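Example record for the data management plan.
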Amino acid sequence: MGRTSLTSPKLKFIGLEMLKEHEYSEPSLLKSLLEEMHSGGVLRRPIAVDKNTNVILDGHSRFNCLKLLGCKIVPAYLFDYGMPEIIVRPYRRGERISKDDVITAGLTGKKLPPKSSKHLVRLNSGRLVHIASLGKEVSIPLENLKSLSNPTC
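Corresponding structural encoding:
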């Protein structure tokens, strides 16, 4: 995955059961997002996933909302988490987190507390941006994500 795809990731559709969470969702955020998605009927922002392990990097609440709404497939932007341009930082001061912590939690199922990690990407300019800001917003009807057949955007 070169720099071009890092800043313009391709949208992929992945079976929900293939994805691995590394942290729990924040209950209050999950509740409000679930209400928003249910009433709007669309997913606006795909999740971010490590292409080598299927560990979710960003979008645990969106993932869990899709699961609760009966969706079978999840729109995701895939990233090579091993790239040095992708950086993980803790959300809370005084805590520590590493890429190894994220992958281990995702692969073992021993999830970290909500909002344990924040994934940033260093652009060519040196500026850091949140991984969720990469890729385009979408408006995918939730009904299109409820079967394993090819969804239409």
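Summary line stored alongside the record: Residues 29 and 61 are 7 Å apart (CA to CA).
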